[in-house]
Design goal:
With about 280 residues, the chain is an all-beta fold. It has one helix at about 5-10; strands at about 15-20, 25-35, 35-45, 50-55, 55-60, 65-70, 80-85, 90-95, 95-100, 105-110, 115-120, 125-130, 130-135, 140, 145-150, 155-160, 165, 170-175, 175-185, 185-190, 195-200, 205-210, 210-215, 225-230, 235-240, 240-245, 250-255, 265. The strands form seven sheets. The chain has a four-stranded antiparallel sheet with strand order 3-2-1-28, with no helix packed on it. It comes from Natronocalculus amylovorans.
C-alpha cells in the first residue's frame, strides 16, 4: 500500500494504519497517519458489501462469496475465495470468520477451511462477534449455534467491550438486559472496546465516553454510511465517498469520490501517538 519512503515520512510522527472501505466498485484501502489521509488504492475489484480486518487478514463479503487476503507486509496479498456462496456481511471472531447470506443464514468459516452452519435469522445487517444485528433480533454466537438476545429491527451492533445495539427504536447497551441509552432511530454504532463509542442516529452523530452520551458535531452535512474505531482513531465514510478521521483533535476529512460505500474497518496499524 505505502512505499517504504512514505512510511518513514508520512508516519514518522504519528505512525500509520490503513482504513478499508467496502464500495460498489471494490475494496478501497487508504493509508492514514493520525488524521492525515495519504494514498489510496483499489485492492479488490468488484462489489463489496462488508469488510473486516485483523492484524493478519482482511475479509470481504461479495455476491460471489467471502474473500480473504493477508495484511502482513507492504501490500495486501492476493484475495482467495474462502466461501463460494453469496455473502452480505462478514466478521472475525475468536473461533473463526463469520458470514451471512441474503436469506439470513449465518455460517462460520473454520481455520481448516470447513464451514459450519450456525442458524437462520430474518436477515443480517451486520456482524461484530459475538453479536449479530438482524431484522428480528440481536443474536449471540455461542459455540455452533445462534442464541436470540432480544430487541428487534436491529441495524448494527458492537460486540467488543460493552455491547451496543443500534435499532429503529433507539440505541441500547447491554447490562442487566438491554437498556435504552438514546431514543430514536439509530443506524450505526461502533466502539473501541474500552471507554469510547460512537453512534449515528436520525439527529446526527453521538459520542459516548464512559457511558455518558452527547451529540458530536460532524464536519460535513452528509449522511454517514459507516463508522469504525481502531488503532487510536475513529473513521467514518459518508454517502458521497468522503473519508472523515478523528485522531483525538477533532475531525478532518477528504473527498475520495468512492461510489456507494457500505462498510469500513480500521486495520491494526502502528498505535497512534498525539504527544
Amino acid at each position: 500500500m505505502q512505499t517504504l519512503i512514505e512510511k518513514r515520512v508520512f508516519g514518522e510522527q504519528f505512525g500509520t494504519t490503513e482504513v478499508c472501505i467496502a464500495t460498489e466498485l471494490g475494496l478501497v484501502v487508504v493509508s492514514v497517519s493520525a488524521d492525515q489521509v495519504g494514498e489510496f488504492s483499489l485492492s479488490y475489484k468488484g462489489a463489496v458489501s462488508s469488510v473486516a480486518v485483523t492484524a493478519e487478514r482482511v475479509a470481504i463479503s461479495t455476491p460471489d462469496g467471502v474473500y480473504t487476503a493477508s495484511t502482513d507486509g507492504e501490500e495486501y496479498g492476493e484475495f482467495a475465495n474462502q466461501f463460494p456462496s453469496e455473502s452480505v456481511a462478514v466478521g472475525f471472531g475468536s473461533t473463526g470468520l463469520f458470514t451471512a447470506d441474503s436469506d439470513g443464514v449465518v455460517s462460520r468459516i473454520n481455520s481448516d477451511g470447513s464451514v459450519t452452519s450456525l442458524g437462520d435469522t430474518a436477515g443480517v445487517r451486520s456482524i461484530d462477534p459475538p453479536l449479530i444485528a438482524a431484522a428480528d433480533s440481536v443474536y449471540r454466537i455461542s459455540g455452533d449455534e445462534l442464541i436470540e438476545a432480544g430487541l428487534s429491527d436491529v441495524n448494527d451492533v458492537s460486540g467488543i467491550g460493552t455491547p451496543f445495539a443500534a435499532t429503529t427504536d433507539g440505541l441500547y447497551t447491554l447490562g442487566n438486559g438491554w437498556m435504552e441509552t438514546l431514543d430514536g432511530p439509530f443506524s450505526l454504532v461502533a466502539s473501541d472496546g474500552h471507554e469510547r463509542a460512537h453512534a449515528v442516529g436520525e439527529d446526527g452523530l453521538f459520542v459516548g465516553v464512559n457511558d455518558v452520551w452527547d451529540a458530536e458535531p460532524f464536519p460535513v452535512d452528509e449522511p454517514i454510511s459507516a463508522i469504525a474505531h481502531g488503532s487510536g482513531i475513529v473513521a467514518a465514510v459518508t454517502a458521497s465517498g468522503r473519508l472523515c478521521i478523528n485522531a483525538g483533535d477533532g475531525w478532518r476529512h477528504q473527498l475520495l469520490g468512492l461510489k456507494r460505500p457500505t462498510s469500513i474497518a480500521v486495520a491494526h496499524g502502528d498505535e497512534i501517538s498525539v504527544d
